[in-house]
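User: what does the whole thing look like in 3D?
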Amino acid sequence: MMAALLVALGAAVGAPLRYLTDQAIRARHDSVFPWGTVTVNVTGSLLLGFLVGLPANDAFLLLAGTGFCGALTTYSTFSYETLRLVQTRAWPVAVASVLANLGAGIGAAFAGVALAQAIVG
Amino acid sequence: MTSVSSVVRRPDQATAARRAGRWPELGAVAAGGVVGSLARFGLHEAVPSVAGQFPWATFAVNVTGCLLIGVLMVLLTEVWAGRRLLRPFLGVGVLGGFTTFSAYAVEIEQAVSVGAARTALLYLGGTLVAAMLAVGAGAGLTGAAVRTVRRRTAARRTAAPKQIAHRPDRHRRGPR
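Assistant: Here's the predicted 3D structure for the full assembly of 297 residues, as structure tokens:
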């Protein structure tokens, strides 16, 4: 019960933050490339990597990891945006979207873990 | 303070509506995000991931979420157009909170770090391919279903125009 509450609290912050990030980036960049999704996915992966690398205690992992990072990042928006790019024949942007999310997102997870381990020693 | 600034500056109505309009949407995203994240958490509790083994829980969550976003986006644009809070709640909130990229990325790192590079690569590529097929199938099948229903409805209308002439438009509902 306590665990679910921590996840819910983290998610209640993470999901709106993803929404606001996307809106703020859309307002500034008039681009078909999904910068908003790449930004939240890279940031969330870096942070979760860091938390797992420490490793943070269980309660904090539920709140900030499963709840916040889980809700901040998204696979559904990533896949849907990529589908839309494919449907509109924007192939180079679709490929760039996949490479950016996977490359930078997974790279960020590795970097987060390494950073935490460098700090903890 | 609010009353003073509204008296002194009187922001135009569009700006006021936009400011007021953001809170219901943020609330819908937050509520949906909680629902989606708790569902994801529940599945992870039922099928815990073990470093080095294929992370089935996250895989299932992400592929299912991608299938559903494909279905939802077609319904939102073709059938439920004009319902302002539905996309923030179901799309951005529930499905955005249900699916996750951070767990996917970190599970790949964890698999590599315990020496299961093959599992990591299989999981990386497998999720991407399955997610793209799922979102495409969800959108494609829903689009086809919507078009079929519309065609049949149109055919019925031309066949019996008098019968439906005075029927109110059942697809449209007033603002909530």
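In plain terms: Chain B touches chain A through 51 residues (CB under 8 Å). Chain B is about 80% helix and 0% strand.
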